[in-house]
Specification:
This is Dynamin family protein. Keywords: Coiled coil. By secondary structure, this protein is of the alpha/beta class. The chain contains 16 helices and nine strands. Among the domains are: 215 residues, 3-Layer(aba) Sandwich (Rossmann fold); 187 residues, no CATH class. The two termini are 19 Å apart.
Length: 608
């Protein structure tokens, strides 16, 4: 324990030194990150964040790890606030509110029954209470050594603020479990997220649930291992199945438990996480302190290189060049924004016309079919044909939309990046939706049956007029009312009436079928247009954010260049020499501090 306190003190002093350097360099962003790392060092718990995109099985994974339904799961259920699962002698749960000036440090806590945690959270949110997280305590051996699991809101979901909550919590974590199910390899968005968070928390493992649903999950795991290596991310991969794990726990079956893939993951959490708390903490501190020092050092070296004396003419030329770059950047920003806006507006118009044209072709062919066929006998086959052709039309429309997305990306990138290094935003192909699932099936036409008694009555009505008419004519010739001629005429007219009634009923059924198909196709068109417009909006936002980020970064560089030039112009030679000596001295101090940070990953701790 004494040695642990010495190590903890050395880490805190090192972080404090690095934070002071960040404050001196006016890098509040780096200082805030180090302050969160300092809090993690002083916290005896080992916080492991469980992160991932929506519907990947994060909550179900935590439930399987602790063998308890502590996190809400199910369709259309998403994590709105983080849930922290810790060790306690008895099951417990509480809601933790946002910290305010009137509340207690860390926020007010409201104990609730464990089995009513989700209902109480929903009630608190509906009542307008600002709940920052929920905490659950369980008597589990996995959590005895201080391990704490946090279920986090999904990253890359529809609500961007939830993803921001998760990324903000990364700086406070000792390690991350990235959850991405085994049905597909890691997406570009997931890899980009991992690249961002490894800058704050380098201790990462990838968990791939639903391995029982995918026969070739081993191939997916190998592909993901290559993706991580290519991205420079070090982390183990654990394919698991929460369904098999739950069944194994119910039946107390060790073979099923081994098949679920959870034992290696549990060993990893016990041995390489909870039991290696000190080493992981050292790695976390070393990574973040080293990165902060490197950023400050790079800025100081750049400033040192700019300390060479310059003439007034050189200064003026540099200011004019920087000003021209700023004006060019402003014009460039206007051009790419106009190009993007015009292309998106044109795409909105084209996509609606494209699918409506395809749906009209299907509808025209359907009407031609219904003009000849009897819907009462061919409806099921006709409905399958209609759905299949509409599905093909949807796929063709969204394939065309994805090609337009690529072309617009190229156009905007070319417009923006004429004077910059070419880089395209990372975006996944537009998926093909299935709007037919949300549209009720077309209703089959009514009155499809023509009962025998109705046919007899129809025939009698027609034959009665024939018998009466021809009977009266033949009666004038001296024949009785009922004779061969009148009866034959009645039979002919009765058969004609029956055929006309059958034909009339068929035409009514065909008209009803065409109306039902028309309504069905219009409903599908509405759903497809909504899906397409949503996809276009997402593409627009992604492109705009990417190009805007490049523009802002270029503007910041130009602004800093102007400020540095002005500052250097105001300094005389004596001031520049003095500043150069200060920078060199500071670089030496930072180098010593960096060496101390680099020793953290070894078995030595440098005393402050």
């Amino acid at each position: 324990m004494h040695n642990l306190n010495v190590i903890e003190t050395a880490l805190v002093e090192l972080i404090d030194r690095a934070e002071a350097e960040c404050a001196e360099a006016q890098r509040t962003d780096l200082g805030n990150r180090l302050r969160k790392i300092r809090s993690r060092v002083l916290d005896p718990a080992q916080l492991v964040l469980v992160v991932g995109e929506p519907e990947q099985g994060k909550s179900e994974l935590i439930n399987s790890l602790v063998n308890a339904p502590v996190c809400a799961t199910g369709e259309n259920v998403s994590t709105a606030v983080p849930t922290v699962v810790r060790h306690s002698s008895e099951p417990s749960a509480q809601l933790v509110e946002q910290e305010t000036t009137q509340s207690a440090v860390g926020g007010d806590r409201l104990p609730v029954p464990v089995d009513q945690l989700h209902d109480e959270l929903d009630r608190a949110v509906r009542n307008g209470r600002s709940v920052s997280r929920t905490e659950v305590g369980l008597p589990r051996a996995l959590l005895e050594n201080g391990l704490a699991l946090m279920d986090t809101p999904a990253v890359g979901g529809a609500v961007s603020s939830l993803g921001a909550i998760t990324e903000a919590a990364v700086a406070e974590a000792d390690a991350l479990l990235m959850v991405s199910d085994a049905t597909q390899e890691l997406t570009t968005n997931e890899l980009n997220f991992l690249r961002r968070v490894t800058a704050m928390c380098p201790n990462i493992a990838l968990v791939q649930p639903k391995a029982d649903f995918v026969p070739d999950w081993r191939r997916i795991v190998e592909l993901n291992r290559k993706h991580l290596a290519n991205a420079g991310i070090a982390g183990k991969i654990f394919p698991v199945s929460s369904k098999i794990r739950a069944r194994a726990m119910r039946e107390k079956n060790q073979d099923l438990n081994a098949e679920s893939g959870f034992p290696p993951l549990l060993d990893y959490l016990r041995k390489e996480m909870a039991s290696a708390h000190e080493q992981l903490t050292r790695k976390l501190v070393a990574h973040n302190v080293t990165e902060a020092i490197d950023q400050i050092t790079n800025s100081l070296r750049e400033e040192l290189n700019n300390q060479s004396p310059r003439t007034a003419t050189e200064t003026l030329l540099e200011l004019e060049a920087a000003q021209r770059r700023a004006e060019d950047l402003k014009r460039l920003s206007g051009r790419w924004q106009k190009t993007l806006s015009d292309a998106v507006q044109e795409l909105y118009s084209d996509i609606e016309y494209d699918f409506r044209e395809r749906s009209w072709a299907v509808l025209h062919q359907a009407n031609e079919t219904l003009d000849e066929a009897d819907p009462s006998t061919t409806w099921e086959d006709f409905e399958d044909w209609l759905k299949e052709n509409l599905s093909e039309a949807v796929a063709e429309t969204f394939g065309w939309l994805d090609r337009r997305r690529e072309r617009i990306t190229e156009q905007v990138s070319d417009e923006l990046l004429r004077e910059h290094v070419r880089t395209l935003p990372s975006s996944d192909p537009i998926p093909v939706p299935d709007p037919l699932q949300r549209v009720p099936d077309p209703k089959a036409p009514k009155n499809a049956s023509f009962p025998r008694k109705d046919q007899i009555l129809t025939g009698l009505r027609g034959s009665y007029g024939g018998v009466l008419m021809f009977g009266l004519v033949t009666k004038m010739a001296g024949l009785p009312l009922m004779n061969v001629v009148s009866i034959s005429a009645g039979l002919v007219l009765g058969s004609k009436s029956l055929n006309e009634e059958k034909d009339s009923r068929l035409k009514r059924r065909q008209a009803e079928a065409r109306t039902a198909v028309q309504r069905y196709v219009e409903h599908v068109v509405f759903q497809v247009n909504k899906e397409a417009r949503d996809s276009i909006r997402h593409m627009h936002q992604t492109l705009h954010d990417h190009c805007n980020q490049i523009t802002e970064q270029a503007q910041i560089r130009i602004s800093r260049s102007i400020q540095d030039t002005k500052r250097m112009a105001e300094q005389d030679a004596v001031d520049r020499d003095a500043r150069a000596r200060e920078i060199k001295k500071k670089l030496e101090e930072l180098n010593v501090l960096r060496k101390r940070a680099s020793t953290l990953t070894s078995n030595r701790i440098a005393a402050a």
